[in-house]
């Protein structure tokens, strides 16, 4: 399954990012939206936590069985699984540092820069944030845990799972989700009062990574928002946020069910493991993969503390990239694997020509929380809130994932217009004929999803604070971006071009989502609180579709091994062939669990 497949590897996240066609799985889906919300009421972690072996650079061994680049959600999950029997040595190299202080959106634990401007979104450039700490983006994100649908995960196999035994579909990944997460149940009284549904069959019971419902008091307005959304024709209520169906749902967050502190890869797959064969080197950046012929034999890395000397370490069995949707493609290109034109311009010798590296880049554009606000704040619950971890925790979270036919009566006309596009019409000019053919397969899947009641095209989170909704208005963008090198500074931060809105289908969907949200909040049941629009298109009672519009190749196979190279794999979000209609972070953990199984099986 070329999770990068025959398409470009825009290698991935995080979040949220996430090649295309699984035999084309080359799609980056990550941080455009995944890191916008930092809701943590999480408590500081115990500073006495014991770790496996945290090594200094002078103590790094000459050789390990496995070297993992990146200590984020995917990297630490795979590192834990590969080292748990004690028979294999594992080194994880992380750009950031090890920290116990987890307090949400903290710039000191992030790398940030700007994307190129997107003409399709009125020449807007976007902030990019990735986690730069042990735990990765999962240590700073909003902790929301929502999966994609059955149709979306089955599309992974359609686009690249060529083997009959492929694990890249709903059933295969469901076992990964069960292995990855343990469910923390909601408060019984709140569950009864607000109709909070869940089904434990979609969750595991043994993982130290938790998806738990908060037990803070809900604002009664959330119940009004729930009932109002439920009354809309065709909106269905999902039995569980992990059931693989779109609709109205309560969802858990990545938090401990007792302390309500953040639950992420560091707490689940690093803290307290006490393994002499599991090493972590922090404060160092991997610059490239080292090869003997076309076989990966190690990595070259440098200190992030101003020390310029380059060091190297050898891998006996495999080098595994999990550096984020942005840095993994960059490392491949710096290693001589990628599009010839990009490598030539940067003065890098071509080892393996793979045009898909850095392409098929997708993400979830998100409308900020302050886009809508209440004129009159709805009254909070009059129940006293206990001064306990449970009382201070977030309340249960509510959202709706909406298929296009539920959002709009224009779904069929939008699908027909998308179907009529030629495959290469709105793709970057650098795409090869093979990449265009790969996208044609994706476009067929996209068209089916535009018509389907089983795939969400927008996600609306409903809350009881000062802002009634947050809108993820593009769960399945048809526009494709690129990640590339800066030819003047190839080792600097990669050049990110979202090309957001470059395909007119995305603008058409955005218009319908905008109208849906405006109509929803215009209900008489909310009138006394005066929901007011501050963004998401032009403001006003009478706004036309036109005014809203004006405002706005394969890299790896089914085993996640890089084409043309040996003993080199990628396990982060960059191997997702398409974006999914949920938060990317949860899927990253499930894919990482399956990746670890594949790596173990081939290295017995």
Descriptive notes:
The strands form eight sheets. Strands 3, 4, 5, 11, 12, 13, 14 and 25 form an eight-stranded mixed sheet that branches. The chain has a five-stranded antiparallel sheet with strand order 10-19-20-21-17. The protein is an alpha/beta fold and 604 residues long. It is 25% helix and 18% strand. The longest helix is centred in the last third of the chain and has 19 residues. Strand 4, helix 2 and strand 5 form a beta-alpha-beta unit. The N terminus is likely disordered. Helix 2 runs parallel beside helix 16 and helix 12 packs antiparallel against helix 13. The chain has a single domain, classed as FAD/NAD(P)-binding domain. The radius of gyration is 23 Å and the shape is globular. The two termini are 21 Å apart. It holds the Pfam family GMC_oxred_C. Belongs to the GMC oxidoreductase family. Keywords: FAD, Flavoprotein, Membrane, Oxidoreductase, Transmembrane, Transmembrane helix. Its cofactor is FAD. This is Glucose-methanol-choline oxidoreductase N-terminal domain-containing protein.
